[in-house]
Design a protein that fits this description.
Length: 441
């Protein structure tokens, strides 16, 4: 017989009875309490794998119970139940350490999904994946510890960091280290989806709901059910889509295009950007309400320059992977290379280190890479703009450089053709024609 026990704290007898009946049918033991004090007595004398508490309790409320549990048993997941339209309070409890929340009237499918996620957490989820984040610097050790902590929560996490620091890797590690590890991890580059297709891509659509909708489409949210949806470059979302995303996160439900009713979704939201969202809010390009929904917990990923002591370990690992991919004997770095790399500023972070080493492997005459093979600028910050950056306007360049320029633009915009066309100073149609002409897939 199972020994898993849940504590339900709610001052409404009908809600207590409904929750107790539902949890018992799931094969769980359930204790019920009507107040903070009753709940505290149970917590001091019994062991639980999950606590469900209403936000509104006589005397001390649900947020006080969250704080009490965080102080006395911080590994115990506690989920809050809040009234419809009063999600602000629930979000504040997530910041205080709550595991998750559900809204009244309680959707039993949502409740069951929450309980099942907590059950998986109770199986002592392994954090061995965090070891994949290479480095021994203080900032990386601190990041590893933070990943372990946030992996136990279901609160949205916002990952801030420059391009190339490894934000998606951090998101994958949060997913892999938590109770959703066996479910899908769905990454999406928000800047790569045409604005007219965004609603369909995120929420799905019904057959015949618009011209070209020849079949039902699931959508990213439904594809990620039970798992994690990672919104990379979230600052690139248009304002209209930000409103719809806000509702989906807030209500834990989506409405496919052409569908009459919303569909509940059990998805954890992770997001990332290399832009400063507070500055984007000030410029009117990002909605403040969405910022507070996705930024319940914030993780800062350090630049490579901030952890230059990790470069030898990272470089050795990169060279090993490159050698495996190319069926070669791993190259080694001459000791002078390490000094040169540690002195370099790395504006492109780990991604730039990978590019530099791949180029150096190709240029080196033997299995040892020398400083000259690295082709490092003496000081990229002091270079003239014309030397440091490529002019992306096609009309000002010779035709033989066209393909190289287009490839650079596509890489810079992560293969978002609309953004690349804008960067190149041409229309999307012109870029599409040139891609076809040059045979670029």
């Amino acid at each position: 017989m199972t020994t898993h026990k849940v504590l339900v704290v709610d001052d409404e007898p009908d809600i207590r009875e409904l929750l107790q009946l539902t949890l018992t049918r799931m094969g769980l033991f359930c204790d019920i309490a009507a107040s903070f004090e009753e709940g505290r007595v149970f917590l001091d004398s019994q062991d639980y794998f999950l606590v469900l508490t209403d936000m509104r309790l006589p005397g001390k409320d649900g947020s006080d119970l969250v704080k009490y549990i965080q102080k006395n048993n911080p590994t115990l997941p506690v989920a809050v139940i809040t009234a419809f339209g009063n999600v602000e309070e629930a979000v504040s409890t997530l910041k205080a350490g709550a595991f998750d929340y559900v809204t009244k009237p309680v959707d039993l499918n949502v409740l069951k999904a929450l309980v099942n996620t907590a059950l998986k957490m109770d199986k002592k989820t392994s954090n061995e994946h965090v070891a994949l984040l290479l480095g021994e610097s203080n900032v990386i050790n601190a990041l590893r510890e933070n990943i372990k902590k946030v992996a136990r929560s279901q609160a949205p996490v916002y990952i801030q960091g420059q391009s190339g620091v490894g934000k998606e890797l951090v998101a994958r590690l949060i997913h892999a280290s938590g109770p959703r590890a066996s479910k899908p991890f769905i990454p999406v580059n928000c800047g790569a989806i045409p604005s007219e297709l965004m609603e369909s891509e995120f929420f799905g659509h019904k057959k015949g709901s618009f011209t070209g909708a020849y079949a039902d489409k699931q959508g990213l949210f439904l594809a990620a059910v039970g798992g994690t949806l990672f919104l990379d470059e979230v600052a690139e979302l248009p304002l209209a889509m930000q409103v719809k995303l806000l509702r989906a996160i807030q209500e834990k439900a989506v409405k496919p295009v052409g569908e009459w009713s919303e569909v509940p979704v059990d998805v954890r939201i992770l997001s990332a950007s290399n832009k400063n969202l507070t500055e984007e809010i000030a410029r009117g390009r990002f909605r403040e309400e969405l910022y507070y929904r996705i930024n319940v917990i914030e993780l800062q990923v350090p630049t490579l320059q901030e952890r230059s002591g990790d470069i030898p370990l990272l470089a050795a690992n990169i060279l090993k992977k490159l050698a495996m991919d190319q069926n070669k004997t791993p190259s080694t770095l001459h000791p002078s290379c390490i000094s040169a790399l540690e002195a370099y500023s790395f504006p492109g972070n780990v991604r730039e280190l990978e590019n530099i080493l791949e180029r150096a492997m190709a240029l080196s005459s033997g299995n040892e890479i020398h400083v000259a093979d690295l082709k490092l600028p003496s000081n990229p910050l002091e270079m003239k703009p014309t030397e440091r950056e490529i002019n992306f306007h096609l009309d000002s360049n010779l035709e033989e450089h066209e393909k190289a320029l287009i490839m650079k633009a596509l890489e810079k915009t992560k293969w978002n053709r609309t953004a690349a066309a804008r960067l190149l100073g041409v229309s999307f149609r012109t870029l599409r024609y040139r891609l076809k002409k040059l045979g670029i897939e």
